[in-house]
Write a structure and sequence with these properties.
Number of strands: 0
Helix content: over 70%
Shape: globular
Strand content: under 5%
Order of helices and strands: HHHHHHHHHHHHHHHHHHHHHH
Length: about 500
Amino acid sequence: MAVPRNLRRQPANGSLVSHCTHHHIAVFLLTFFSYSLLHASRKTFSNVKVSISSQWTPSDLNTTALELQPYELWNSSHLFPNAEEATLFLGTLDTIFLFSYAVGLFVSGIVGDRLNLRWVLSFGMCSSALVEFVFGTLTEWLHFYNKWFYCCLWVVNGLLQSTGWPCVVAIMGNWFGKAGRGFVFGLWSACASVGNILGAFLASCVLQYGYEYAFLVTASVQFAGGIIVFFGLLISPKEVGLPELGEEQEGSAEEDANKPLISNNEEDEDDQNYSIQASDTSNQPKAIGFFQACCLPGVLLYSLAYACLKLVNYSFFFWLPFYLSNNFGWKEAEADQLSIWYDVGGIIGGTIQGLISDMLQKRAPVLAISLLLAIGSLFGYSRSPNSKPINAFIMAITGFFIGGPSNMISSAISADLGRQELVRGNSEALATVTGIVDGTGSIGAAVGQYLVSLIQDNLGWMWVFYFFILMTSSTILFISPLLVREIRLLLHERRLRTRTG
C-alpha cells in the first residue's frame, strides 16, 4: 500500500529555518511594513470620522465650537444639515472606496503577474499617499469642500491601494514555500492589524491639532515607505542567485515542503500520483488567465466565504471607533486607542491558527471552529457593559476569532490556492488568485459598509451585530464542502497511520 507522502515526511518547520537567509528576513519585513502603511492610512479615515462629521455640520449643533464672524465665511464647510447625514455620507465613502478597491484588486492581480511587482507596489503606495494628502489635508487648508470631489478622490485611492495586497502576497509566495506557511503567513498577515494600530496611534497623537494633520502624517510616512520599497525590495530569490521555489531536486525535503495543501482529489496524496504530476512542471510557466484562476479548485468557495467574512472584519475596521464613541459616549481619542485591542486579537489569532493548520496540514477545520466561536463572541460583545476593561477584553476575543480566519484566507490560503497542483511552479498565478479572493472579499465588504450605516440608522447597533452573526454563519456555509473533504482526508490519513503501525 502506498503511504501518503505527508504521513512519512518530517515536519517542514526545520526545513524552513535551515533555508531562511537574511534576504528572506528583509523581504518579510519590507512587505510587512509596506502593507502596514497602506492600512494605517485607511485607519486614519475611520479614526477621524467624528471630527470630520463635526466639521461638515453647522456650528450651532456643536456646543464646543467658537462662534466666528463673518458667519458665511466660517460656515462654508458645512456640507450637511445634521450629523446623521454626514455619517451616512462617510459610510457612502467607505462603500465607494471598497468597491473601487475590489475592482482594482481584480486588475492589480493580473497586472502584478505581468509587470515588476516592486514597481507596481511602490507606485501604488506613493500615488495613494498623494491622494490622501489632497483628500484630508489640502482641502482643509484651502477650505475647499465638495462631495463629488471627495467621492472622485476616494475612487482613485481605492484603485491605487488595491495594488498592495496582491503584490505583497505574490512576493511572499515567491520567497516562502509550504514549509510552515500557515505560521509564517499567519504572523506576516498581522501587517494589516499592525497598520491599524499604527494608524490609530498616529491619528490620536495629532488629532488635537485637527484631522488634517492625521492625514498629513500618515500620507508622509506612506510615501517614504514607497520610496524605500522601490529601492530595497527583492521580488524573487533569483534576483540574488538563490533557487526559485520548486527548483530543488525531486524527493528533497524542501520540494516536499513546497507541495501545496490544496490539491484536486484524495489520490493526489499518493507517491505514484505525486511523481507523475511533478514531471509536468518542467515547462516554462506563463501568467495564468483570469478565468483559469477562477476555475481552480477552492478559489470560488474561498472567495465567497471571504466576501462574508471581510464584510464583518472591515465593519469593525471602519466603524469600531465610531461605535465606541457613539454608543458609550467615550472621547474620540480614547475610542481610537481602545479599538486597537481588536487588532491585537487578530494578530494573535492569525498566528496561532496558522500554526495549528500547519500541524494538521489542513486549513478548513481550523477556520470552521474559529468562526463558530466567533458567533458566540459577537453575541457577547453586542452586550458589553459600559466598562473599558471588559469591552477591550471581549473585543480582543472577537478579533481573535474573526481577524484570525480573515488573515488566514487572505494570505496563507491564497498562497495555497495560487500554488496548487494545477499551477505548481507557476509563481505568475499568485497575484491573480490573490486578487480574485481579496477582490471578491472587498465587494462583500463594500456592500456591508452601506448596510451597516443603514441598519444602524433604522434599527440600532444591536441589529448590526445580528447582521454580523448572519454573515459569519454564511462564511461557514461556503467553506462547508471544503471542510467535509478535509475532514474525510484527516480520517483517511488516521486510518492509514493505524494500518502502518
